[in-house]
Amino acid sequence: MFAFSKEAEEKIEKILKKYPEERKRSALLPLLTLVQRQERHVNPDAMREIGRRLDLSPAYVQSVCSFYTMYSSKPVGKYLILFCVNISCQLNGCDVLLAHTAKKLNIEIGGTTNDMKFSLHREECLAACSGGPMMRINDTFYENLTAAKIDQILDSLD
What we know:
Layout lengths: L5 H12 L10 H12 L4 H11 L3 H10 L11 E6 L2 H5 L2 H12 L12 E6 L11 E3 L2 E3 L4 H10 L2
Parallel strand pairs: 1-2
Antiparallel strand pairs: 1-3, 3-4
């Protein structure tokens, strides 16, 4: 059985007020985001709970959850690093910087550090083409990256 935190319950109340009853399914992405932030992944129990609250089948919730790369079915680190690998970032050296980041964190791309602090993933596009190469850590975008800048950013995270 999944339970939202007290803080999340308060947010859910506000989210659901934004939508008329017949459109409450529109709250699906915000509720998935709450779970992802609370648990660092969206598990089947959470999908069932969201489905119950929004009158959606768990299969539908799972289909939406699996479509979006911002949700994970396995726990991710406290800091989820998404490295843009689309053409603008490719042309500006993202492959070398992604490899540098993986080496610095001592993990494979797609992996998570043993202490669950960092997860490192490729992302097809983060929609910041003019700032490539770039990465997103949780909700913060970092653009015009260099190896030194990446080291500084990662070292600054607690």
